[in-house]
Amino acid sequence: MTGSEKVALREMRWWDIERVFQLERELFPEDAWSRGMFWSELAHARGPAATRRYVVAEEDGRLVGYAGLTSAGTAADGEVGTDEATGVADVQTIAVSRGHWGTGLGSRLLTELLRAATAFECAEVLLECRIDNVRAQKLYERFGFETIGVRKGYYQPGNVDALVMRLTDPSTSVDPANPQDPANPATPVNGVEGTETHG
Fold this sequence. Notes:
This protein is of the alpha+beta class. Helix content is 24%, strand content 34%. The protein has helices spanning 17-27, 35-42, 105-119, 134-142, 170-173, and strands at 8-11, 52-59, 62-72, 87-96, 122-130, 146-155, 160-168, 180-181, 184-188. A 7-stranded mixed beta sheet has the order 1-2-3-4-5-7-6, with helices on both faces. The protein has a two-stranded antiparallel ribbon with strand order 8-9. Strand 4 (87-96), helix 3 and strand 5 (122-130) form a beta-alpha-beta unit.
């Protein structure tokens, strides 16, 4: 196996927070989340009323990535009362250790979040991306996200702008039951391979 195939994805639990926090500080030294922020997110990630999905990526017992998504309410247009997906999800974070950049792990993590958004019956997924993070922007665009705005000075203390990106109907970007293109089953959706949760 090569690339991200050796990496297992699983639900993030409270005992992962310290390792996640260390990777967070390494990758995002200026605007790292606190331990308390991760605790708060995980408090809403289990049970019948769960509104969060957080996963970690491990290789040989080492944490090499993590990702999280929150879901809430109705679609941005406010329409309710249909049998169709109406919620909105927000990608809170995706992080991949530098040694795993370019291996497809970011795609696997994003795929897992989009599956969660579909399970939460979300009609759209939003995210913010640093304007200077071209690598992440290209990943999101490959999955169908489009830029819909800019938040000036969003990332502090560096005063870095954020692109606001949106994906409508995450279920068409990643089919949770079958991540293959139905028109051509040999071709992975969005060119992403190894999207099974455990590689």
